[in-house]
Amino acid sequence: MSVLLLILLISGAVHLISKGLGAITGGGKDSSSSTPASSVSEIESSSQPDEETISWSSVQLTEADEHQGDLILVNALHEYRSEPEDLLIFYGNKTRSYGIKVAEMYAKSSVVSAMNEMMDAFAAATGNSSALLDSAYRDVTSQQTLYNNDLASTGETTSSTVAAPGASEHHTGYALDLSYQSNVGYQYIDGTGDYAWIAENCWKYGFIVRYPEDKSSVTGMSGKPWHLRYVGKVHAEAIVKGGYCLEEYIDMLKLHDSENPYSFTTEDGEVYLIYYTAGAGTTTDVPVVSGKSYSISGTNEGGFVTIVPMSASAPVSDTSEPSTDSTGSSDASSDSSSNASSESSSSN
Question: Which pTM was predicted?
Answer without folding.
Answer: 0.77
